Structure formats: structure tokens, C-alpha cells
């Protein structure tokens, strides 16, 4: 597999180490990445997203959605008791167990998860704390301007 040296990115940027780490993690994934089950990621609003995972053949009880720090982990385990009394002539619907991980950006949390029409839909919301939102800083000029700014702040 092709490897990229990200050292120049570390030297030439400040505060982008997380992005470089993420690129490095994606490039070094074994097996070229996981393809099962298929999924979509959709932007549903300014700060709202949805992950849609095709989970045909699984019931809500066989699925698990868990958020740990900045990771979203979706797992599925099929009980073998259902298929013990049947012999398949053709089995085209994959119901094998899986674990799918998604790396979430800072301040993104899972709001809800629902199972409908063979799809698991996980709704995500990005909530930036007030302390991290941009704010306008007044620029003081003359002494009279400085007193006016201090008076407005009090």
C-alpha cells in the first residue's frame, strides 16, 4: 500500500495535528477499508447530520449503537436460532455480524437512532459551546473610546 509522509504538514501548520492524524489513520487502514454494510452520510441541516446504514435482516434488538468519546460504534449480532430449521438454496441477504466505527468531530453527539424499512438511521447534532463560538472584539482607539467600551462591558 502507498504510504504518505505527513511530516511536512506537521511542520507547516499549527493546530491541524488532528487532521493529519485522521489522514494517517485512514491511509493505514488494513484491508483497504470495510465495505459491509453499506451506508450513507447526509447533512440534514446547518449543524445536523444523519448516518444511514443498510441493516436488512436485523431486528432493532440485534443492533447496538454506542458513542464513546469521539467515536460512534455500530454493531450487529444475528442469533443463529432463526436459521437452524431452514436450508437455504440461495442466500443473497448477508446477515453476518459486523462492527462499523465512525470518527466524530468535536462537539458532535448522537441525538437519536431509529430502525425503519431495513435502514438504521442515526441522527447527529453538532453543538458548539458558547465559549468556543466566534465573538467580536472591540478595538480601543483613543482614551475616550476606551472608557466607552469599558462602560458598555460593565
List the helices and strands and how they pair.
Elements: H1 7-12, H2 17-27, E1 39-45, E2 48-54, E3 63-68, E4 71-76, E5 98-103, E6 108-116, E7 119-126, H3 143-153
Antiparallel strand pairs: 1-2, 2-7, 3-4, 4-5, 6-7
Domain SHSP: 30-142
Organism: Palleronia sediminis
Protein name: Hsp20 family protein
What does it look like?
The chain contains three helices and seven strands, in the order ααβββββββα. By secondary structure, it is of the alpha+beta class. It has two domains: 1-33, no CATH class; 36-153, Immunoglobulin-like, CATH 2.60.40. β1 and β2 form a beta hairpin. The longest helix is centred in the first third of the chain and has 11 residues, at 17-27. The mean pLDDT is 79.
Quick recap:
The chain is an alpha+beta fold and 154 residues long. 18% of the residues lie in helices and 32% in strands. Strand 3 (63-68) and strand 4 (71-76) form a beta hairpin.
> Measured on Cα atoms, how large is the radius of gyration?
24 Å
CATH class of the largest domain: Mainly Beta
Secondary-structure-based class equals alpha+beta
Distance between the termini: 60 Å
Strand content: 25-35%
Low-confidence stretches: none
Number of H/I helices:
3
Mean pLDDT: 79
Total domain units: 2
- H and E order: HHEEEEEEEH
- What do we call the CATH topology of the largest domain? Immunoglobulin-like
Total strand segments: 7
Family: Belongs to the small heat shock protein (HSP20) family.
Protein name: Hsp20 family protein
Keywords: Stress response
Organism: Palleronia sediminis
Amino acid at each position: 500500500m502507498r504510504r504518505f509522509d505527513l511530516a511536512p504538514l506537521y511542520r507547516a501548520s499549527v493546530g491541524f495535528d488532528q487532521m493529519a492524524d485522521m489522514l494517517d489513520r485512514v491511509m493505514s487502514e488494513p484491508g483497504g477499508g470495510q465495505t459491509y454494510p453499506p451506508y450513507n452520510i447526509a447533512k440534514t441541516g446547518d449543524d445536523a447530520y444523519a448516518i444511514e446504514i443498510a441493516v436488512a435482516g436485523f431486528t432493532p434488538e440485534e443492533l447496538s449503537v454506542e458513542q464513546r468519546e469521539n467515536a460512534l460504534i455500530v454493531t450487529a449480532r444475528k442469533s443463529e436460532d432463526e436459521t437452524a430449521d431452514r436450508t437455504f438454496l440461495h442466500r443473497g441477504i448477508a446477515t453476518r455480524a459486523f462492527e462499523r466505527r465512525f470518527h466524530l468531530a468535536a462537539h458532535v453527539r448522537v441525538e437519536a437512532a431509529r430502525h425503519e424499512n431495513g435502514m438504521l438511521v442515526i441522527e447527529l447534532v453538532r453543538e458548539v459551546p458558547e465559549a468556543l463560538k466566534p465573538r467580536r472584539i472591540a478595538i480601543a482607539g483613543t482614551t475616550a473610546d476606551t472608557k466607552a467600551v469599558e462602560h458598555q462591558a460593565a
